[in-house]
Amino acid sequence: MLGGLGKLVANKILGLPRGTNLSSYTQIYVAFFLSALSHSSGDFMIEKRMVSRSFEFFLLQAVGITIEDFVIYIAKRLLLRGGVELKLGKVDGSWAGAVGRVVGYCWVTLWVSWTIPVWLDGLNADGWSSVDRGPITRLLLDKWKQRV
Q1: Measured between alpha carbons, how far apart are the two ends of the chain, in Å?
Q2: Which of 16, 46, 59, 73 has a CA-to-CA distance to 99 between 20 and 30 Å?
Q3: Range of the structural domain that residue 108 is part of
């Protein structure tokens, strides 16, 4: 449903041609914005000060996709110069495709792990959650707090 609304905004309302990067990214950002909007209502019910956390977290996921796409674009260009054609998204059994998928899974795991404190730290700070999420998450939270 969110994808359909993204297509409506990108292609019908804004008139962006289908299949273009601008159309695709508009759809992604609209979908994550709507997801943030729906999650922020729950945040509001828990604590009014937390409403912005869903927007930060979900829009950061769209940013993560944008960064990932840019890195893939650069990698394809560099590998193509070396004679390796990278076809990510298509299971072709090649070593480059397998490496690309593994790197992609690692990227998603890292990005979500790195950005989830934006959403969850408010719960911990307000005493709503005191779950010990383990040493890796504590390390990431500490790094995040130092950065912010």
Answers
A1: 34
A2: 59
A3: 2-147
